[in-house]
Amino acid sequence: xxxxxxxxxxxxxxxxxxxxxxxxxxxxxxxxxxxxxxxxxxxxxxxxxxxxxxxxxxxxxxxxxxxxxxxxxxxxxxxxxxxxxxxxxxxxxxxxxxxxxxxxxxxxxxxxxxxxxxxxxxxxxxxxxxxxxxxxxxxxxxxxxxxxxxxxxxxxxxxxxxxxxxxxxxxxxxxxxxxxxxxxxxxxxxxxxxxxxxxxxxxxxxxxxxxxxxxxxxxxxxxxxxxxxxxxxxxxxxxxxxxxxxxxxxxxxxxxxxxxxxxxxxxxxxxxxxxxxxxxxxxxxxxxxxxxxxxxxxxxxxxxxxxxxxxxxxxxxxxxxxxxxxxxxxxxxxxxxxxxxxxxxxxxxxxxxxxxxxxxxxxxxxxxxxxxxxxxxxxxxxxxxxxxxxxxxxxxxxxxxxxxxxxxxx
Length: 410
Hints:
13 strands, alpha+beta
């Protein structure tokens, strides 16, 4: 009997250890499950929100192109903020019954985890002064420079952003204007040939798209000796003191000026020449890009001096929309003075297809008025639509409280 009691106690102890081990394993699994669940869900949701916002912007572009094609006013709505709160919970329920007579243990285990999400979206229509600033005012030469520097396909950027080209005299006075629109076929053809010529120059390393940098004279013939603290403080602001031959001092500042497109290196000019060139260029509005191709430089068979008029976002959308049916673009051969192979030169700057059914593949599309508007599935048109998207983001992207703040409760 004593041995039977000792054997029963040992069996109970073993079963107790087994139960504790099992409970420990269940608790560990629940902890691991909860910890592994949070990061993947967070990653998936953040990427999902980003994808949705990107698709919304593409839809807005295509919807406004469709509205413009049908003669309707455009309208933009920006997603100003997305606040999402995530909550992860894990539950564990373990019950058991020990039956010594049968030698069998019964356990009831419940293990689970759950996640909840409460997103809040803030939308704001782009209206009033914001609409005027972002949609109606032409882009600046700085925006053109950034795209030309990164994208490289300057002919595509010129065809999309350029309203026209104004030829000027050396003093900057007006000569004539050619408009980049197929409604004026002769002017349109000349603009297209000029765009291809600029692309050929850029590809052959004969075109410079630069910001004019020069020293601006701020103080001349300063009789006193500058204090050491003034000299030190001026370094951080780009100020430089210099002594003249007569013993006086002058104060200069390194200045960044306007954007120029030339077939010669602006850095090879003297500081005074860059300053004088900037003085002439800055008389043009900020939406003009200065172009100067000298006769003795690369591509000089076609000497050009003038400016590219830049469009606004609304003008670009109207231009693309008019190509759907009202005034479609057409093929233009390169100018004979463009000596060398040229890249792709399609008829349409950005071809938009209109159909009764949604397009196949991964091209961007949107439904409007019972029809589907989609980007033509070619490398050129995909790149042109991406450029339009970049410009759209720069035009309507600076909205207050933009961001995706996420609060995690665990």
